[in-house]
Design a protein that fits this description.
Blueprint: E1 5-16, E2 19-30, E3 34-38, H1 45-53, E4 60-65, E5 68-69, H2 74-78, E6 81-85, H3 96-106, H4 112-122, H5 138-149, E7 156-160, H6 168-185, E8 188-192, H7 196-202, E9 205-210, E10 213-218, H8 223-226, H9 232-241
Parallel strand pairs: 3-8, 3-9, 6-7, 7-8
Antiparallel strand pairs: 1-2, 1-4, 4-5, 9-10
Helix pairs in contact: 3-4
Length: 248
């Protein structure tokens, strides 16, 4: 039986005056699936994620989460969604515990204190619970950001370069936690990254964007060979430099 579609994006567009940042894209992400959203800087990845989050209003098209239209039912949909990115800093003057507790309140998490304690343990943050976020290392802050992102046990998790600038050991730990979360909860994950080895290890499927359009999609392990490239990095470079050669 096919897995339930958690996220459905249909003919989504975002126009900024003369620039079309996202140009008529459609895709879906199923329960338990991790999908990589790839492309060079300025391809439209973050704009797409911000529209899915409801931060930006699309110029055209629609976003459905759990069969609910985001525009019509944003409050209910938002409770099933969360987000993490290295650049999305949490309030630096609050402690680790305070950050998790406040975000838990915002999401209406039940048995919140117990949930916070579980996350502190799962993300190796217990010894930092009373530490102000501004004093955390980048690795500690990344673990907190991800803990915040799953505090409401979202069925849609959006990750914008969650391991950027992290050392290989911490990045591997973060990747494994996300893989485990998707498998255990059957959540859908949409993940942007410029680390092609990471994408091959983590993602079930990839979507290549360039100039706001989706050029390619498929299994990251087999897609390069289908286009005569030796690996995903070579395919990424070719699609970024010569997008018209992949245009359908």
């Amino acid at each position: 039986m096919p897995e339930e579609i958690i996220l459905r994006v249909c003919r989504l567009e975002k126009q900024y005056q003369l620039v079309k940042a996202v140009d008529n894209i459609s895709f879906s992400v199923r329960a338990g699936e991790i999908v990589g959203l790839l492309g060079p800087n300025g391809a439209g990845k973050t704009t797409t994620i911000n529209m899915i989050l409801g931060i930006l209003e699309p110029s055209a098209g629609s976003v459905e989460i759990l069969c609910r239209d985001l525009k019509a039912d944003r409050c209910q949909v938002s409770r099933q969604t969360n987000f993490a990115a290295v650049y999305a800093h949490l309030p630096a003057n609050l402690t680790v515990w305070q950050n998790l507790y406040i975000f838990g309140l915002l999401y209406g998490v039940k048995n919140l204190k117990k949930r916070v304690d579980i996350l502190l343990k799962d993300f190796d943050l217990k010894s930092f619970s009373k530490t102000r976020v501004g004093f955390l290392s980048s690795g500690e802050a990344s673990r907190l950001n991800l803990a915040k992102a799953v505090i409401n046990q979202p069925l849609l998790l959006l990750l914008d370069e969650p391991t950027a600038s992290l050392d290989p050991s911490i990045a591997q730990s973060i990747r494994q936690k996300i893989i485990n979360y998707a498998a255990e909860t059957r959540s859908a994950v949409l993940w942007t990254s410029h680390n092609m080895a990471e994408i091959v290890d983590v993602c079930n499927r990839v979507l290549f964007m360039s100039h706001g359009r989706i050029l390619l999609s498929g299994d990251p392990k087999t897609l390069p060979a289908e286009h005569g490239k030796k690996d995903l990095e070579e395919l990424f470079i070719a699609a970024a430099r010569e997008p018209l050669s992949f245009d359908k």
